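Practice problem: predict the structure.
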Amino acid sequence: MDLGEMNVDVDGEENCLDSMTSELVNDLRDCSDKVLQFLASACLDRLSENGYFFDLGCFTYGLTIILGFERFLSSHEEDFADSVRKIWDYKKNKCTVSYYCNICGSNGKENIKCCNEFPAKFVRNGVMPQLQQIMSTYLSKIVSIRKDLNEGRQQTHNLAAQFFTPLRSSEESEYELRLSGILSIDGVAVPGTSKKLWPISIMLVDLPTGDMQKSSNVMLEGMIESSSNPSTTLWNSVLPIILADCEAREGSVGMYKYKLHIVTVSADQPAKRSLFGMKGHHGSLSCFFCLSAGTFYKLGGEKRAEKRPDNLTVIDSESGLNGFGNVAAKIVQFVKPYETPIDCLHNLGEGVYENVTKELFSKVNKSTPKSDLFECDSNTLQNALNSVILPSSYSEIGNCRNGSDKISFFRLPLALVAVQSEFLKPQARFAIIALSMIANKMYTTGKGPALFDEQMCSAALWFLKEASEEYLSCKTHEVLFHLPDVVHAFGNIGPLGTFAFESSYQFALMGYSTRMTRHFSETACARMFRVLIHNAIRREISRRFAENPSPSLKKFLTFTKGLTPQQVYYNNVISCQLENIDEPYGDGNTLYGSLSLPCGKLKSEYYESSTKDDVFFAVKEGGHLECFRFVAAMVDAGEIKILAEPFNEINVANQFPSLSKALQELDNTDLYYGQEVIRMLKEFEGVKFCQLSERRVSVPLKSVISLGSYIDCGDGLCVFAVNGTMIHN
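Answer:
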C-alpha cells in the first residue's frame, strides 16, 4: 500500500518498542535453559490460565497470582530468581492508548463524552517488534519457500497463488523480502462486562502454512475497547495508525531487509462490513464479490471485479453506491472487498454446514426446516453415523463444539453416510457430498480434476436452490457463487480464514472473568504485552530445540506438547502371533504396533484389535495419493519403515454403486449434477473406493500425509483422506 495522505508519526514509539524487543530477545537468548523452562512452565501450567497477565492493581485475585508465582520462585537461589523476574516483569505497560469518538471519529479523552457517548479506547501494541521476533526465528524457512517458488518446486503454498505473486515478484534482489500480511478484526465478548474488545491482528503468509497459523505467530497490533460495535468512522480513525505501524518502516535480519504489506483482510461478516463500510448482509447489492440484488436470499450477480474494478469500487464507497453505506471506508483505497478470502470458519462451519446439519436432525432439535430436502429419521441417521470409522483424534467432532468441529463432522461422517445410505433423498445425498467435498479438498492435499470446485459448488447450488431459495443466505451465496474464483486467486483459502485469529484471541485473553471489571483496559493493555513475552519464550524454546537442545530441555519438552513440531516415534512392541503373511517381516526385526506422525497416530490391529487408526494416505510415485492399512513399524539400518497393506481401487465402472442406483431416480438437471458429483468423487485423489489387497509393502515414512476415515459399502470401502493440509483446528 501507499500510505498517501495518511501521515502518522510513529517513529518515536516504534523505536522504543524496537529497542524493548531487541533487549527482550537478547535476554532470552542469554538466559539459561533452566530459566527458560521455569518461564515456560509459568506460562503454560495453571499459572498461565490467569497468572502470566497478573498486572491487576490491588485486586486480591491478581495478588494471589503474584504470590503463587513468587511462591514457586522462592525455592530457587536469588540469582536465578532475579534472572526470571527480569524477563517475567519485562516493561509490560509500554502500550500506547488513544481515544476516538465512535460517531464522528475525532480524537477524544477518557471519560469525556463526544456525540453523547464515551469514546472508544484504542490500545496500540505495534507489530514491528513481533515481526522482528518472527523474522529472526523463521528467516531460513521464509527464504527456502521463496527459493522453491522461484524454481517451480513449490505449488501448494499460498504465495504461489495469483493474488500474492505480484508483491513477491516486485522484490529487486534475493535479500529483499516483501512480506504479505493478512489483517483481521473481530469482536470478543468478555464475561462480567458490557464492554467488548476488538483485537486487531495480522498473520504472515510468508511462513510455512502450519507455522503462520500458530497463535504465537499471529501478531497483535492492538485492541479497541468499546461499549458498542466500532463504526466505519472509528476504523477510519484507527486505520492510518495500523498501516503506519505495519508499512511505514523496514526491518532487517542479517543480510536481509524486509517490509510488511497489508494485502488483504480476513474477518467474519459483521466485522468485515464495518471495516469496509458496506451494508448489512441482508441488504441488496451487499455481497463483497458481486452485485446480487437479493436481500435475505441471494442469487447471482455481476462480479464487482469486472463491473466495478479498482477505482470504480473506491468511487462506490465514496458515493455510498452498490452496497456501500454512507461513510466512505479508507481500507477500500488499499484493499477492495472482492480482494479478500472467503471465511470458511463462519461461512461453512457456522453457515451452510450447520444449517444442513440442523435440518437433518430437525425432528430432534424441533427446528423448522426450509424444505423437506433433508427430511429423514433421526435414529436411522444416528445408526448410520455410528457405522462410520473415524480416527480416534476425531471421535468428539459429533459434539460440534465449535466451527472446526462442525466442518469436520459435515465433511467426514455426514458425507460418508450420504455416499452409502439410501434413507436420504437422492438430491439430499448429492447436495451433502458436493458441499462436503468443497472443504475436503481444502483439508487434504488430494488433487482434484479440472473444474472440481466449480462443479461441486454448482451441484450444491442447484439442489439447494431447487428445494428452497431460503438456503441461499449471504454466507452460502459467497461460497457457492464465488469460491472457485477466490480459490483461483488465493490458492487454498482454508489456512487464510479466521481459524488462527480466533484461537489467538482466546490465547491472548485467557483468564478474563467477572472479577476483572475494574481497570478493564489497563488489564487488557498489560495482557497484550504479556502475550508478546509468552510468544517470545515459545519461539526461543523452538529455536533451541532446532539447534542443539540440552538434555534438560529435551526432558522438559516430553512433558510439554505443542511447543515444538510433532516428532516421529514408535512404540508398543508386537508380541502376539503374527499372521502368516507378516511372519517373514518379524524374523530378525522388532515390529511396533503404533507410530506417531505429524499427521496423527497410527495403531495396528496387532496392538489394538478394534483400532480405528490404521488407515492412511501416502504420496506415491508421480505425486499421486494411495491408500494403505498400517500393519507395523520397524527399524532397518537406523531408518523407520512402515509395513503396510495397500488398498486396491475397485474398477471405476463399479465404484459407488449406491449413488449410481440413486441416479435412476433423477432426470434432467438433477441427473446431470448427480453424475458430475460421482465423476468428481471418482477422480478426486482424496477419496478412494477400494478393497484390501492382502499384500504387504514398505511405505516411506515421509510419504505419509493423512489419516483415513471410511465406511463399509458392502462391495468395498469408501475412504476419505482426513487431513494433509495444515489448517488450524
